[in-house]
Amino acid sequence: MNISEFISKFSNHPILFIGTGMSLRYLNNSYTWDELLQKIAFELKDNNEYYLDIKSRHGNANKYNYAEIAKELEVEFNRCLEQDRHGKFEETNDIFYHNMQLGINVSRFKIYLSQLFMNLDFKAEKADEIIELKKVRKNIGSIITTNYDKLIENIFEFKPLIGNDILLSNPYGSVYKIHGCVDNPDKIIIT
């Protein structure tokens, strides 16, 4: 059974929960939580051992506390960018200082996260599936997601409601982005 057949059998419009698996399937620039943190750590320090050291401090028996890993990485990321204004992450610093002049205090780490996911880099081999997904959007009431990227808005053309404190007051045609969105880095939840 394909997606169109499955969704067409509903008598009402379902609310879907879509996680990272959707972005991993259709985007080249998508990551698991571990891959994302590893990528940022590598970009920051130019080696993989830095991430492995952080990871070792927040895990045992092959179980890792990624929220704590992200928290430690965020502190170091922000400190390094503060000390290297015009380095590799100059664009992130530019956004940070522009925001600060406007009275908006957003972590450089969250700004960088939004930069990583801002553009959608679609996998060419999934183009036919995306066309099919666009056909079924009229049969979906709304979507709840933890994804930061705008894949869902692109495919389903739903209005984003961002943050983890939103009320499901108008569910039809909305995507509830409970962990934040690239458009609002201050609302990104990763730690």
Series of H and E elements: HEHHHEEHHHHEHEE
Backbone structural class: alpha/beta
Q: Sum up the overall morphology in one term.
A: globular
Please report the number of helical segments: 9
Q: Kindly state the mean pLDDT as a whole number?
A: 91
Kindly state the number of beta strands: 6
* Helix fraction by DSSP (H/I, runs of at least 4): 40-55%
Strand coverage percent: 5-15%
| Order of strands in the sheet with most strands | 1-4-6-5
Distance from first to last alpha carbon: 38 Å
Radius of gyration: 18 Å
Sheet with the most strands, sense and barrel status? 4 strands, parallel
Poorly predicted regions are none
Summarize the structure.
By secondary structure, this protein is α/β, with parallel strands linked by helices. It has helices spanning 3-8, 20-26, 33-45, 49-57, 66-83, 90-101, 108-117, 127-136, 151-156; strands at 15-18, 59-60, 63-64, 142-145, 159-162, 174-177.
Features of this protein?
two-stranded antiparallel sheet; 9 helices; alpha/beta; globular; four-stranded parallel sheet; 191 residues
Describe this structure as you would to a colleague:
A hairpin with a 2-residue loop joins strand 2 (59-60) and strand 3. The longest helix is centred in the middle third of the chain and has 18 residues, at 66-83. Helix 4 (49-57) crosses helix 5. The protein contains nine helices and six strands; from the N terminus they run H-E-H-H-H-E-E-H-H-H-H-E-H-E-E. The chain is of the alpha/beta class and 191 residues long. 48% of the residues lie in helices and 10% in strands. It has a four-stranded parallel sheet with strand order 1-4-6-5. Strands 2-3 form a two-stranded antiparallel sheet. The protein has helices at residues 3-8, 20-26, 33-45, 49-57, 66-83, 90-101, 108-117, 127-136, 151-156; strands spanning 15-18, 59-60, 63-64, 142-145, 159-162, 174-177.
